[in-house]
Design brief:
- The chain has 684 residues and is of the alpha/beta class.
- The protein contains 23 helices and 18 strands.
Length: 684
């Protein structure tokens, strides 16, 4: 049954309550009643003479009303042995279910308007709409391209007398509600709907930027954000007794940026460092230290040398190999002496790691493989009972729902490996840490491994929860760091490049460059601090701006170039806008809306792009791609330089408005720098 209650006021009719009551079970998927209810709702509104989109107070209210009216349930589909989960909501809604879009996400707001219009004009042929930026800025700022597809669908289904895609486009325009974003959409070509954002809207939103706090002031308030998700990001993950090298660079930088995006949106985020601090290799290292170094070394370099020599002796000396294996048994049994040596090794490594993280300005909590060691046997026993883990040739294996190499959880000799540790870790993160979303940031070579871990986790039922949506798992894979010769980035002797040396060289090169070019008013201490910011920022940006899944070429010359898409170019743009703000005497905090206006096209282009920060942030987080923030920041810097070159600021009769624009530019630049983990430079 379908109930609809209408209320009439002097100006319009609106709906106060819409409800669908399902009186009997349906043999088809549960999304069907929702669809039927939606169609009946639309028809009922038309009978009352009200456009279905007119009852909305706001876009946000519309979304909440839809959520209360129709219970969008998850439909589980089984195909052979593969279980996939699909929802009746759109793909973008599913991907953003764990976080809210920014309130000032312009593209999302426009897309919601067009969604409502299409639902009203063609309710029975509705699909998720798409909205893109106009390729030709002369036609508009955003473009809706679905009219042609809708026309073909309507013609096939019948029941609607339309003669062309342009007529479909016009029907959609007729259903667009009055809104603050644009006024008169236009139709171009066969049916493209172009909209131009109004100057008044741009002006009002630019002024609102002054009331937004700096990124460092954002904090998670657990009392206010009770329903916010809890996200765990697993990244960096170096090995104990080995120096961090360039191979750890990408996971550390990418993982930190993902955490910063989450934290910027006030999402509680737990940063975990799954260090390799357990395993059979520690037996041979402990025995070697016992023989050669009185159980103690105090530098990571000595530890790594000892590890190589221990491995060599382990392979060549049978007696040493037997003693090493016995040492592993003692360590796992909790022998006090073995534990003391092991803890010393871990602390020595930890001290070195902290030096690297401090240089990169990365916060992370260590939770190594040893933390989960005692949990493994119980986890594997549970998986055996559920017939997920089975014995094969003496080993305990998990065969995935898809084709691929099985996960070996317990070797034939009874030893555990990293697959068993990863299963224990993911169980602990879901069951005890209460994570809503777990993100792993590793190289793409581990994609199949984590696909197997995720598959086993789902089949074990660990993802399902009664009162909340299922836990989401994501693997962010990245490519290799390559040298300019097209091979893996290594030293001339073929050794892996140590990360500490790489960061030091970047800082040194920037310092030399500043010395050679000359700086105005920078002391020696300030020059060194600036060189450090430029060098570390250049390395981070060169990594983050690339497509994560592809390899990228590491080149100091390219990343330190003043021209092109580099961190140095962005820093100089920030220095320029900061210098303008330092020179002005205008107090932007006391500017009123009537005092803000545009005179040049460069001003409008820059202002409009500033408003796109929210959609760039949401898009980056949806797909876990920090490169989109890089693209946004580079375009912002380029547009500011165009504005700076074409428009006089200080001393112009429109100085006040242009100072406001500079202030907004600097504010958004700093937010982007914060998300990318780059310290902005204010003076060069």
């Amino acid at each position: 049954f379908f109930f609809c209650r209408f209320h009439q006021t002097s100006s319009h009719t609106y709906v106060s309550r819409v409800a669908w009551v399902d009186s009997q079970p349906y043999p088809y998927p549960q999304s069907r009643p929702s669809l039927m209810a939606h169609r009946l709702q639309t028809r009922a509104l038309r009978i009352a003479g009200v456009a279905p989109i007119k009852y909305n107070v706001s876009l946000q209210n519309y979304s909440r009303m839809r959520g209360r009216t129709f219970n969008k349930k998850t439909v589980r589909l089984h195909s052979d042995s593969i279980k996939s989960v699909q929802s009746v909501e759109s793909l973008s809604e599913r991907k953003s279910a764990l976080f809210k879009f920014e309130e000032d996400n312009l593209k999302a707001s426009l897309k919601s308007l067009f969604t409502q219009a299409v639902q009203a004009a063609y309710p029975e042929n509705f699909k998720e709409v798409s909205l893109n930026e106009c390729a030709n800025s002369g036609l508009g700022d955003y473009q809706f391209n679905d009219a042609m597809h809708l026309f073909s669908v309507v013609r096939e289904v019948g029941g609607c007398d339309v003669k062309s895609p342009r007529e479909v486009a016009q029907n959609i325009i007729n259903m667009l509600p009055v809104n603050p974003f644009f006024e008169n959409p236009s139709i171009a070509g066969p049916g493209f709907i172009n909209v131009k954002i109004s100057d008044s809207y741009i002006s009002s939103k630019i002024l609102q930027n002054f009331n937004i706090c700096e990124p460092r002031e954002r904090r998670v308030n657990t009392a206010e954000n009770v329903n916010y998700p809890r996200v765990i990001v697993d990244f960096s993950s170096p090995n104990i007794a080995k120096e961090m090298h360039v191979g750890h660079l990408r996971s550390t930088i990418i993982g930190d940026s993902i955490c910063r995006m989450l934290e910027y949106k006030n999402i509680e985020t737990l940063r975990l460092n799954h260090v390799g601090d357990w395993g059979t290799q520690f037996g041979m290292l402990i025995e070697y230290l016992n023989d050669e170094h009185d159980d103690f070394v105090d530098t990571i370099g000595d530890l790594q040398s000892c590890y190589k020599l221990a491995k060599k002796r382990f392979d060549e000396d049978t007696e040493f190999k037997i003693r090493s294996q016995a040492a592993v048994v003692k360590l796992q049994a909790g022998d006090p002496k073995m534990l003391e040596i092991w803890e010393n090794v871990c602390q020595t490594s930890r001290n070195e790691f902290e030096t690297i993280y401090e240089a990169l300005n990365v916060r992370i909590s260590e939770r190594g493989e040893s933390f989960y060691n005692l949990m493994i046997s119980g986890i594997l026993e549970e998986l055996e009972q559920k017939n997920i883990a089975v014995k094969s040739e003496g080993a305990l294996c998990i065969f995935s729902s898809f084709e691929g190499t099985p996960l070996i959880c317990r070797k034939s000799d009874g030893g555990y490996n990293y697959a068993s540790t990863d299963l224990a870790a993911i169980n602990h993160r879901i069951k005890y840490e209460k994570a809503d979303w777990v993100i792993y940031v590793t190289d793409s070579g581990q994609k199949k491994h984590f696909a197997g871990i995720f598959d086993a986790t789902e089949r074990a039922g660990w993802l399902e929860r009664c009162e909340k949506s299922d836990v989401r798992l994501s693997h962010v894979g990245f490519g290799l760091v390559m040298g300019e010769d097209g091979k893996r980035f290594r030293t001339r002797s073929g050794e892996v490049i140590r990360l500490k040396e790489l960061l030091s060289e970047a800082e040194s090169r920037c310092y030399d460059e500043l010395k050679n070019r000359g700086t105005s008013g920078l002391s020696e201490i300030e020059m060194k601090q600036t060189a450090r910011k430029l060098g570390i920022g250049a390395i981070k940006y060169a990594d983050l701006q690339n497509n994560l899944s592809t390899n990228y070429v590491f080149s100091f010359d390219r990343m330190l170039d003043l021209k092109g898409n580099t961190a140095i170019y962005l820093q100089y743009a920030h220095v320029r806008v900061s210098a303008v703000l330092d020179k002005t005497q205008i107090d932007v905090q006391n500017v009123t809306p009537q005092e803000f206006r545009f005179k040049a096209k460069e001003e409008r282009a820059l202002a409009l792009h500033i408003l796109k920060f929210a959609e760039s942030l949401d898009s980056s987080l949806q797909d876990l791609m920090p490169s989109r923030i890089c693209d946004y920041l580079y375009t912002l810097s380029s547009l500011f330089n165009d504005f700076y070159g074409s428009c006089k600021v200080i001393g112009d009769d429109n100085e006040e408005s242009r100072i406001i624009l500079c202030h907004a530019t600097a504010s958004v630049m700093r937010r982007c720098f914060f998300i990318l983990g780059i310290d902005p430079v204010y003076k060069l």
